[in-house]
Amino acid sequence: MIRVHARLSSGRRLDKLQDDVLGAMDEALQTANPASIIRRHVRLDHDTLRVDKLSFPLKRDQRLFVFGAGKASGYMAEEIERILGERIDDGFVIIPDYLRPRPRGHRTCDW
Fold this sequence. Notes:
Blueprint: H1 16-32, H2 34-41, E1 42-45, E2 48-51, E3 54-57, E4 64-69, H3 73-84, E5 88-94
Parallel strand pairs: 4-5
Antiparallel strand pairs: 1-2, 2-3
Helix pairs in contact: 2-3
């Protein structure tokens, strides 16, 4: 989650107006967060996948796949995976190269 925090160089807290502006920025960033958008619009109720007002009954033996492409799709797919968990069979998400995690001193990536 992105949070905006600021203090004056002297270490004093900002005044109320400045604090309110930073709070509004926090809210705007959270509203635009791809995972937050998925959390607000997608949920699993027992055996029914709900996307806003749409309902999709899920059978226990039904196979589910997740596909995505674009800058936000990785974050969205992670949230879908959190919601649907073991119900997902497979899938793939295509994100731009510059969004891939960089190795940090060893062969596996630090997330």
